[in-house]
Fold these 4 entries.
Entry 1:
Amino acid sequence: MLKNIDPALNADVLHALRSMGHADTLALVDTNFPADAIARQTTLGKLLHMDNIPAARAMRAILSVFPLDTPLQPSVGRMEVMGDPDQIPAPQQEVQAEIDAVEGKTTSMYGIERFAFYEHARKAYCVITTGETRFYGCFLLTKGVIPPAAEL
C-alpha cells in the first residue's frame, strides 16, 4: 500500500502510466473488447488489468496520476455505438462525469467508430482492461504534460 496512490492502480498499471510520454495514448477497455490480441500489438506488448473495476472507477484512479492533453486537443475518445454514434450509454456518461470532476470543467469526449477504435488501440502505448461488463466501456486517453512547479 502506498500513501496518496489510488489502490485500484496496481504496479503494472502505474509503471505503464509513468513510462508513457506526452501524446502517447492508452486504451481503457471493457470486458468484451479483444484486449489481449490488440495489446500484443501495442508499444508495451502485453495486456494490463484493472479487473473487477467498472470503467468509471478505473478512469478516476488513472486520472488521479495521469495528466490529460486537454489544453491542446480533445484528449479522451470513446467508442461510438454502432448505428447511433451520438448515443452516450451509461458507462460513457459515468466516465464523462469522472473526467469533468478531475478537470474542473466539461471536457467532451470525441467519438471513434468501433473498427477505427481497434486500429487506434493497436497503435497505443498500452491496453488496460477493466471489469466493465456493459457495452461501450472503451476509451482512448492521450497523455499531456505536467508543467514545472514555477509555471503552476
Entry 2:
Amino acid sequence: MDILHRFTGAAEEFTGALHRRTPRVFRPADPPLDLLRAAELDHWLDTGLLRVPYLQLVTAEGEVPLPQFCPPRRVLGRTEHGYVDGSAVRHLLAEGAATVLLRHVDQWHPGVRAVCAAMRSELGRQVEAFWFVTPPGTQGRPVHRDDADVFVVQTEGAKVWHLYGGPLDGRWAPGPVDVPAEPEFTVRLEPGEVLYVPRGHAHRAVAAERGASAHLSFTVREAGDAHLRAALDGLLAGAGDRPARPLGEADLLAAADRLLTEARTALAALSAEDLLDRARAGMEAVGPVPGGAPAGRRITDLFAATP
C-alpha cells in the first residue's frame, strides 16, 4: 500500500515538504475517508466499554474533568473509574462544550493500525494516530506546538486551520504557546483534503459553523536529543564483557581502561547517520501492539463446524 500517495496524490511532493518543513495542503484523488466514520463513535459509545485515556474530552481551555463524563461504575461489587458514559459525551458535544479526542487509535483500530504501519515503513519514523470530533464553531485545543510532524486528514465536516510558524531553533517545547494575532497560514479543510503541519509549527483549528468536524491526525515522531543520548548510552553499555565489581585499585583501573578503550572503538566506528538511525529505531513501542499480528486461530474460527 503506497499510503503516502493515497494521502497526498504525490508522495515525492510530501517528502519534499517534510524536508523543507513547509505547510502544505494536498487534495488526493483517493483520500482515506473510509478509515473512521462518526457512526463508529456512536457504536463505541453504545458499548459502554470505552475508557480513558483512549477517550478524552478537551476544549480550548484544557481537558474536561473526568467526573463530567466518567461516573463511577459498579463491576463485580467493586467501584471502577474511567469508563466513559456515552450519554454524557453526546450531551457535551451537542452543547458545543467539548471536543472528543480518541488517542492512539492505531493501537486498537485495525484499519488505522495498518495505515500507520505502512507510513512507518515508507517514512522510517514512528507513527501514531488521533481522532478529533469537534462541535460546530468550536475549538478543541489552544494554540500549541506538537512534537511531531502531523498529517491532518479531514474525514467529515469542515475545519479552519490557522498556522503561526515554527520555532526559530531547537530550544523549544511542545504545548500551548502565545502567538501573534495574525496567523501566517490559514486554510479551510473539506472532507478528503489533507494538511501537513510541520513539527513545532504553532497552530489552532476551529470547526465550521455548520455541522461538526471530524479529522484524523497522523503524528510522525522524530528523534530528539534524549533519543540520541539513549541510543549512545545503549551502544556503549553493550560493549564488551566486564566484571561488575572489580576488586582492588589495580582491577578498578584496568576495568576503567578497558571501558575507555571499548568506548573509543565503538565511537570510532559510529557515524552521525548510524546514531540517528539507532535513535529512531529506539522510539518504537516495546513489545507487540495488542491486536497486531495474528496469533493462532481467530475467535470466529472456533465456532466453525468441524468435519
Entry 3:
Amino acid sequence: MDAAELRVRLAAPYDLPTPARTTIEVKDPPAIGAASGSDDAMDLVSGALVPAAVLVPFLLGAEPGVLLTRRTAHLTKHAGQVSFPGGRIDPGDASAEAAALREAREEIALDPAQVELAGRLGDYVTGTGYRITPVLGLLPEGWDLAQLHLAPSPDEVAEVFALPLSVLLDPRAPQRRRAHYRGRWREFWVWPHPEHYIWGATAAILVHLAARLREP
C-alpha cells in the first residue's frame, strides 16, 4: 500500500465496523481505572466528556507503519502505557487537528510542517471521561523514524516506536481480551508487539483504523 492509496483510503467516509473478535480471559485488567473503550465503558463515565485529540502519524519509508509512544513510568495517569501523541483540546486550539499537532510537537518535537493531514476517524469515548478525536497524518514520504529527528519530552514520553503496517493490515493480529473489573467482565483490544503491550483506547483506535484500510 503506497502513499497515494493511503491518502484515498484515509480520506474516505467511514462507518465503524464490527471486526472479528478473538477473546482471551485474564484475571486482572492491565491498569486500574482504564477503560476498554466506547463499546464497553460508558457505564464508567460520569459528568461531561472532556474533548481530546490524538495524532495518528503514518511513516511512509521503507518500513511503513504507525508512530506510537510509550509514556514515562513516573506519570500519575496512564504511566508506562502505549499511546498516540495527543491530549486535551485547549480553548486556544482552533480544531482537533490543531490540538493534535500541538501535543505532538510538545511530546515528541514533531514539526507540524512535516505532517500532511489526511482526515479523521470517528470520536472514541473512554471510561475515564474523554472524547478522543483521532487525527490522521502522513509523515514525509520515504523517511524513516531517524530522519524525523524526534526528541521525546522526558516529562511525558519514554520512547517512540512504530507498529508495522503489515501487522496493522493483518486481521488476525488484534486480540479481544476479557478481564473482571468493578463487578463485571469487560473486554478490550490488544495488538501484538515484541516489546510493548498495546491495549485499551490506543488498541481500539488501531482496530478501527485497520478496518478502514482493509476495506475493498
Entry 4:
Amino acid sequence: MKRFSNKVVWITGASSGIGEATVYEFAKEGAKLVISARREDELQRVKKNTNLPDADVLVLPLDSEKPEEFPAKVKEVLKHFDTIDVLFNNAGISQRSSVMESDMEVYHKIMDINFFGVVALTKAVLPVMLKQKSGHIAVTSSISGKLGTPMRSGYCATKHALHGFFDSLRSEVWKENVGVTIVCPGYIHTNISINAIAGDGSKHGKMDQNQASGISAEDCAASIVSAIYKGKEEIYIGRKEVLGVYLKRFFPGILSRILRNQAPK
C-alpha cells in the first residue's frame, strides 16, 4: 500500500532541488500534490514529470516575500482539494558572504524568505489542520540550523530561528494530532550554492565543491518522505557533515577549531 495514498501534500520550493525531488517521491507514494515556487513554467514541467492525472496536481505559484497573498493561496488549495494533510515548507535561499561584507538588506531578505515567509504560510495553513484535527507540517532547516559556519551568518541565523519556532509549535499542537518535522540536510547535490545570495545582494553563481559531491536530491527526498510518514521530530541527512551536530553537543571546542579552519584565509 502506498504510504500517502489520497493525502494532499503541499510543497514549496517545488521547482528544483530537494523540493522537486520530494514532489516525485510523494507522487510515487500516492499523494495528491500542491506544488509552489515563483516560476510557474518550471512548476508546469515538474507537474508533467509526475505522470499524475491533471486534477491530482495543483500548480500554485507563490512568492515567499509576499505573505499577504498566503490566505488566498490556502483558499485556492481548499477549493481544489478540500483539505491539506501535509505542508512541506521547503522554499529558501542560502548565502555566501562574510558578516562585514553583507549589507543589512541581504540579512532582511534572507530572513523574509527563510523565516518570516515560512512562519506566515504555516500560520495560514494551521487553522485547516486544527479544524480537521490532523495534519503534518515539515520544514527544511539545515545542519547549519544546529551550528554556525563561515560565510553563512544570515543563513544560519534563519535556520536556527526555524528550530525555535517549530519546536515551540510542536509543543502546542500535538494534542490536536498535528505533527511537526524539522529536516536538517547537510551537503545535497543541488544548485543551492549557485543560487545563494552574495553580500551585495547579487547571485553567488558558483557551485561549492561540498555541494557538488553531496548526496543526491532523490536520496534526500526519500529520507524526508519516510520521516514525515513516521512522524519523526527532527532528522539529519548527509554524510560526515552530520557529525557536526554531535560535535557541537559533546565536543564544542573541537568543532570550533574545525570551523575556524574552513573560514577564508
